[in-house]
Amino acid sequence: MHSSSDSSSPAISSLLEENLKTIEDSFANCTDLKILTWNYGPGLEQAAFSVYFDTLTKSTLKHFVKDTLQNLVPHELGPARTVTIDDVIDFFENKGVASPYVELMDDFQQVVSGILDGKVVIFFNGWSRAIAYYALDVEQRQASEPITESTVQGPHVSFIESLERNIGVIRSLIKSPHLKFEMFTSGEQVQRTVSYGYLEGVVKPETLSEFKQRIDGIVKEEIIEVSYLEEWINDSLYSPFPQVRYTERPDTAVNALLDGKIIAMVNGSPSILICPGSFIEFFTVSEDYYYRTIFSSLIRLIRVAAFIIALMLPSTYIALSTFHSELIPTVLLLAILNTREGIPFPALVEALIMEFFFELLREAGIRLPRPIGSAVSIVGALVIGQAAIQSQIASPVMVIVVALTGIASFALPQYNMAIALRILRFPLMFLAATFGGLGIMVGFILIYLHLTTLRSLGEPYLDSVAPLDLKRLRDAIFVVPRRLLVHSPRSRHFYKKTSGKNKIT
Fold it and tell me: Rounded to two decimals, what is the model's pTM?
């Protein structure tokens, strides 16, 4: 949905020269703007010009409009009759053109927006309106396998940077009139189209109302990518835990809609934002329902274990080696003491050094080109780890702890949850080095208190856990067979309006 025309925008003149001057002033120094002046009619006595961006429009349609006008109107009026501007006005305003890609424009705000949208706009001498033909032709990436969400079983298709294409893919998977998509244009310079979708009757009305209220203020913001919306949607801007999810997979977006979620998209971004987000959902993927129940449940348990390892393993090792060595078996304790002999740093400093180098290697592997990024990460980790051990900067046990922590963070389906663990890991390490096991317990309690008070679009972040919902909790950690669920893949509510009130059925 494009923004309505500005009431202060100048109207289109009936004089061709004035319109031409306005266009030239509006798009000064735009060398890719093409203005084609031409005549039409049997005697070529009528003047007109078309304007378009040569870098946005299809080459096959640039002169199609001109050729059509020179031939179409005389066919309507007869070859012996002279074409006048009144005939053109009558033809386009009363008879029209049988094409969904044409529209009439009344002011220059519409004209400028149309040209920037990839339309060919035509002005006629003696007519105070313009015709616009949609002819956008910008190179787009073809649908391919998701890059950030690879899958073994299930659909191997991803969203692309075209908003219309992405909405079409979702509509092809959910053939229901209850699937609603609303759009608006954001930003004064980029003018990106933002769209959000939901299943009417499935999404909670109060959640949808809260979402609409929060995005009302972004109309004037320059939205480049869908992640720009997160700041307006989040309840807590400074919480390390993500309150929305992202996906590139259509099946994940469809499952989210069926679960009563709201999805948001931005033209030019291949990612889909899903909100509200709950803590349990960051451990689940739609692929869990493509395998047998026992296998998917095992995978989810591994993800939960990976979460605990990525969050607490370094701090636990620091606390045990510094304060609670009596809890370590004697043989293992002697092995640790032998490896730490000659290490000049305490366990905390040793862990900080290794974590810093690991994070550095991780970022280097992401930013480098793919063919060499993985090689640098693997070789760098091996070389630095071995060199640190031989130079007695770090012990072999610490290298193993840091490596297991990094591997565990990679096992989480959502990258933004792994980022949260990277942030929380360091305060826990300091608490463990200062107070031992008591510090870890205090840190864990503080994290749990934060999670219990955190909300996403007004919904509890620990949904189905706090407040406790046994029907939904049974499918949170373990994958319950679909035949035991009220609605597959998860138990859902359906909202109906009854006597002016929302009734849950």
Answer: 0.79
